[in-house]
């Protein structure tokens, strides 16, 4: 969404050890540049979720450094974290929509949360809902929308505040193949505007067809990081 | 923290939704606050009045030195002058016995005329001439009394001071204050706990909203504000009833006591000035309890 504005995430020797002793990540080094499309693959419990949570500062590294645009997230004061998060949009497998709000309200909610003036909210929400192809469904409640439509609302919400970076945690995990592809085309479209996309997935077909950068994590370690890579696992 | 009016309105709406959503729990919290503040209010009017009465009494505290009958008028005036010069003396006044008798008769009221008639003649007055000494600070009464006694028993027969009453009143008032503090604190903790519980319910009900607000980068204060407002609002609403009831009770009490004989002895604080103190105190405490209650919950259950 900001062509030319670079937004880089770097990790240097990052470890994540949970209080119960589980070593989710063990010495991860990675750099993701502005405009990239990256798949994170690996078996369940390999550390993909921890990897992703470190990127939007839901978790702090136990050891090592996570740099978001050169800023060490561990050192960022608590009150500044929201400003870091405004540069990042997050999409989940279960959509996380507010059930008592319409599609329009769900998207507008994200703009209200960052204190956008009211007059700017309506045109922008309509714009992104059009982008995700839901102009005609904007007054429907989530329960009246299909899974694919719900995920598109969630994507609209993730991009409405113009983030430089989208993190998607298994965004197609709950969708049938057709809807999954719709979502992928949409993410690809968003990526073309210059927004970085990092997507954790178990969908072999998608990864193998799209041929983007693939980072494979196993037992907390990056075992593969290749451009135009393949899924590399049997389901 | 420059907050836009639009955002502020939103926080108020959100807080109101919170109260509505947990209406029963909010009602319970409001009631607990109301009971706490009612008891607090009763203590408050008692404590204020005891202080007030003590203050009034302090003003009346004076040392009375009864002079020896052998002293001449000139000697008496000279002694008054000397006492006036002592440090800590605000005022020393010579009251000859005929003036003293008249004062006594006046204080006695209507029946006094007959009673004192026979004492008024020459050589009949049993009272001594006295010097009343008003100290600058009631605490000095004891030391002043000693100094006056030191002028010698040839000049001064005896010295009296009404120090006991004020001391007792002041002791009583500080004891009362401690009871209020301890008892009130216990009640306040209980009320704050109840408020924190309703806030907790709101936080749980809004968990997903909060999660999304955090994800999209809402500031911590943006997320917290509605909860503080909700707590303060519960405290504020809980303060309305106690203020009304406590002040009504006091007005009735004041009217009853003020009308009768008791008014002369029990000087109650005027309703208006007490009312201002009590209203401000109760509302302030209500809002404080509410805000503390929400802080407890926000700190424990709201991860930002």
Order of helices and strands of chain B: HHEHEHHEHEHHHHH
Oligomer: heterodimer
Biggest interface, chains and residue tallies: A-B, 25 and 18 residues
Might you state the CATH topology name of chain A? Rossmann fold
Biggest sheet strand order of chain B reads: 2-3-1-4
Largest sheet descriptor of chain B = 4 strands, antiparallel
> How much helical structure, as a percent, in the residues of chain A?
25-40%
CATH second-level architecture of chain A: 3-Layer(aba) Sandwich
Compressed to H and E, one letter per element, the order of chain A equals EEEHEEHEHHHEHEHEE
The CATH class designation of chain A is: Alpha Beta
Report the structural category of chain B: alpha+beta
- Main sheet characteristics of chain A: 6 strands, mixed
- Main-sheet strand order of chain A equals 6-7-8-3-9-10
Report the end-to-end length of chain B measured between terminal Cα atoms: 18 Å
Number of domains of chain A: 1
In terms of DSSP E residues, the strand content of chain B is 5-15%
- What is the CA-based Rg of chain A, rounded? 17 Å
The number of strands of chain B is 4
Task: Specify Rg of chain B, calculated over alpha carbons.
Answer: 30 Å
What's the end-to-end separation of chain A, in Å? 34 Å
Compute the number of strand runs of chain A: 10
């Amino acid at each position: 969404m900001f062509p030319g504005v670079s937004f880089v995430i770097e990790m240097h020797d990052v470890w994540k050890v949970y209080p119960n002793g589980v070593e989710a990540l063990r010495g991860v080094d990675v750099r993701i540049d502005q405009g990239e499309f990256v798949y994170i693959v690996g078996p369940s419990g390999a550390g993909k979720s921890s990897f992703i949570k470190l990127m939007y500062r839901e978790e702090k590294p136990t050891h090592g450094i996570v740099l978001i645009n050169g800023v060490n997230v561990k050192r960022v004061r608590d009150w500044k974290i929201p400003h870091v998060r405004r540069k990042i949009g997050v999409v989940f497998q279960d959509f996380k929509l507010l059930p008592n709000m319409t599609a329009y309200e769900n998207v507008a909610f994200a703009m209200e949360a960052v204190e956008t003036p009211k007059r700017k909210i309506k045109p922008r929400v309509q714009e992104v809902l059009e982008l995700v192809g839901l102009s005609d469904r904007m007054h429907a409640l989530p329960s009246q929308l299909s899974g694919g439509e719900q995920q598109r609302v969630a994507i609209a919400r993730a991009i409405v505040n113009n983030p430089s970076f989208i993190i998607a945690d298994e965004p197609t995990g709950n969708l049938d193949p057709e809807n999954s592809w719709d979502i992928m085309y949409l993410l690809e479209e968003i990526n073309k505007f210059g927004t970085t996309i990092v997507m954790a997935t178990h969908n072999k077909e998608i990864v193998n067809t799209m041929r983007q950068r693939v980072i494979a994590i196993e037992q907390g370690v990056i075992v593969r990081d290749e451009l135009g890579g393949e899924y590399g696992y049997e389901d | 923290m420059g907050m836009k009016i639009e955002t502020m309105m939103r926080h108020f709406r959100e807080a109101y939704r919170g109260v509505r959503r947990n209406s029963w729990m909010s009602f319970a919290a409001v009631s607990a606050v109301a009971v706490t503040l009612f008891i607090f209010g009763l203590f408050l009017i008692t404590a204020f009045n005891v202080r007030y009465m003590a203050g009034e009494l302090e003003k009346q505290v004076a040392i009375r030195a009864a002079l020896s009958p052998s002293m001449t008028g000139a000697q008496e005036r000279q002694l008054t002058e000397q006492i006036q010069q002592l440090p800590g003396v605000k005022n020393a006044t010579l009251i000859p016995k005929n003036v003293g008798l008249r004062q006594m008769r006046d204080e006695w009221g209507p029946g006094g005329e007959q009673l004192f008639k026979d004492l008024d003649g020459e050589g009949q007055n049993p009272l001594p001439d006295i010097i009343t000494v008003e100290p600058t600070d009631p605490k000095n009464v004891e030391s002043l009394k000693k100094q006056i006694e030191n002028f010698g028993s040839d000049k001064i027969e005896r010295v009296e001071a009404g120090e006991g009453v004020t001391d007792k009143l002041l002791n009583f008032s500080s004891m009362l204050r401690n009871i209020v503090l301890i008892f009130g604190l216990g009640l306040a903790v209980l009320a704050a706990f109840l408020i924190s519980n309703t806030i907790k319910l709101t936080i749980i009900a809004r968990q997903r909203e909060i999660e999304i607000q955090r994800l999209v980068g809402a500031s911590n204060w943006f997320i917290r504000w509605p909860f503080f407002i909700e707590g303060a609002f519960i405290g504020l609403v809980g303060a309305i009833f106690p203020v009304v009831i406590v002040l009504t009770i006091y007005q009735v009490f004041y009217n009853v006591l003020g009308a009768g004989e008791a008014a002369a002895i029990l000087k109650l604080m005027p309703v208006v000035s007490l009312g201002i103190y009590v209203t401000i105190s109760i509302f302030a405490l209500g809002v404080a309890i509410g805000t503390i209650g929400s802080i407890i919950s926000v700190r424990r259950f709201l991860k930002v």
